[in-house]
């Protein structure tokens, strides 16, 4: 029978009998009960070797032995089912295992809600309010703890041999370790030779990062298979440029232009932002370094007397900014195309804001990993890069000749 027609017939029958669609005793509850019990009976038939009520089962070494009631939590709420038993207690059901009190879909709901930043108490209250089911905070915590091993595997998975570009960014979270303090969590995002965004990992800093910290992080990435990085885009973090060139000698360290512009605005009154943005554009769109230097001289002459700190900011970042000017326009577009990164950070910040603070560093990493996991159902933390990639790939292949080898189609 066509599934749509079957659903319409069941709905009509429910209305005729005055049965609710959802809730305890509702149509969906009854259907879930029927499906689970039918599957369990099929498993029992396979286990004992004969159909229910079949005379062929008489005198066999093992036979059916009635059933026992059991309540399981499903995606539509608690469902009371009858689980068949056998005489020698050797039946091991798979659809609803022994001592299993909830279906796997419930765990995915808990993980999804955690990724959105809900606390264990809020998730527990959500199940009580929406499903009329009791799920303790301890149970919610145990469910989310299951991803710790998965997170460890993800953080140690093999990576691509080469990334044309990697972005290194930080998001700050509040962690209660004796006292609540702001801690940076660093995320490294790579662009593969196929134009995919690949989140390489998450690392918790302690506020005292330097060359030693970054050398350990980048060496870990290299040990996971990354033999070469063409361009590393970062925000002038202490010790990072030196560590990048220690690990990947040929990598170009590029100051993130977007971050540089944002930091510029921090020193200026909001009323000047639009005008200042127009005056800066000729600097970072200049065809050569000499032209950029000339345009920046004009910018400094206009804004320097009012905001000398902005001129100093650009002067200090100039050596890491100028490599950007040597690239083809398509490569510039990749470096400045931060939409994917900003989208990821927005997800992270939403989850963090909803939580307020975390009891431990692992709790913070677990939450951010679940956000990462939710971006990609395969669990690889990978998604298509939202941009034209083929022109950029050609530009990278020419600029970094011999280092970029495209794969696939």
TrEMBL record:
Entries under InterPro entries matching the protein: Transposase_mutator
Region (Disordered): 48-71
Highest taxon listed in the record's lineage: Bacteria
A Pfam match: Transposase_mut
Keyword entries, A-Z: DNA recombination, DNA-binding, Transposable element, Transposition
Functional description taken from the UniProt entry: Required for the transposition of the insertion element.
Family under the similarity heading: Belongs to the transposase mutator family.
Protein name, per record: Mutator family transposase
Organism from which the protein derives: Nocardia suismassiliense
């Amino acid at each position: 029978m066509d599934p749509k027609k079957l659903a319409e017939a069941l709905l009509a029958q429910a209305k005729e009998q005055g049965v609710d669609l959802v809730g305890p005793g509702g149509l969906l509850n009854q259907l879930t009960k029927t499906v689970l019990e039918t599957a369990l009976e099929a498993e029992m038939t396979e286990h004992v070797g004969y159909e229910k009520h079949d005379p062929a089962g008489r005198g066999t070494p093992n036979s059916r032995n009635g059933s026992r009631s059991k309540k399981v939590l499903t995606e539509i709420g608690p469902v009371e089912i009858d689980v068949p038993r056998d005489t020698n207690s050797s039946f091991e059901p798979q659809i609803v295992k022994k001592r299993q009190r909830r279906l796997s879909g419930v765990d995915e709901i808990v993980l999804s809600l955690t990724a959105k930043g809900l606390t264990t108490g809020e998730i527990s209250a959500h199940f009580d309010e929406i499903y009329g089911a009791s799920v303790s905070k301890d149970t919610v915590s145990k469910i989310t703890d299951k991803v710790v091993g998965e997170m460890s595997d993800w953080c140690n998975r093999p990576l691509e041999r080469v990334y044309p570009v990697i972005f290194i960014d930080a998001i700050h979270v509040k962690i209660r370790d004796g006292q609540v303090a702001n801690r940076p969590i660093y995320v490294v995002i790579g662009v593969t030779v196929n134009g995919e965004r690949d989140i390489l990992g998450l690392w918790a800093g302690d506020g005292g990062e330097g060359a030693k910290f970054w050398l350990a992080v980048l060496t870990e990435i290299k040990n996971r298979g990354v033999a070469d990085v063409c361009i590393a885009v970062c925000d002038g973090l202490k010790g990072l440029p030196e560590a990048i060139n220690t690990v990947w000698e040929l990598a170009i360290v590029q100051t993130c232009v977007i971050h540089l512009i944002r930091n510029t605005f921090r020193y200026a009154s909001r009323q000047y932002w639009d005008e200042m943005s127009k005056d800066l554009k000729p600097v970072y769109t200049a065809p050569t370094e000499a032209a950029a230097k000339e345009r920046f001289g004009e910018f400094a002459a206009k804004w320097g007397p009012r905001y000398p700190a902005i001129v100093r900011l650009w002067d200090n970042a100039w050596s890491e900014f100028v490599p950007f000017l040597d690239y083809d326009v398509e490569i510039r577009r990749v470096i400045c195309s931060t939409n994917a990164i900003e989208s990821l950070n927005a997800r992270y910040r939403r989850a963090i804001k909803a939580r307020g603070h975390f009891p431990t560093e692992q709790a913070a990493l677990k939450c951010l990993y679940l956000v990462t996991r939710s971006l990609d159902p395969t669990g690889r933390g990978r998604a298509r890069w939202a941009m034209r990639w083929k022109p950029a790939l050609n530009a990278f292949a020419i600029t970094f000749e011999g280092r970029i080898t495209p794969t696939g189609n």
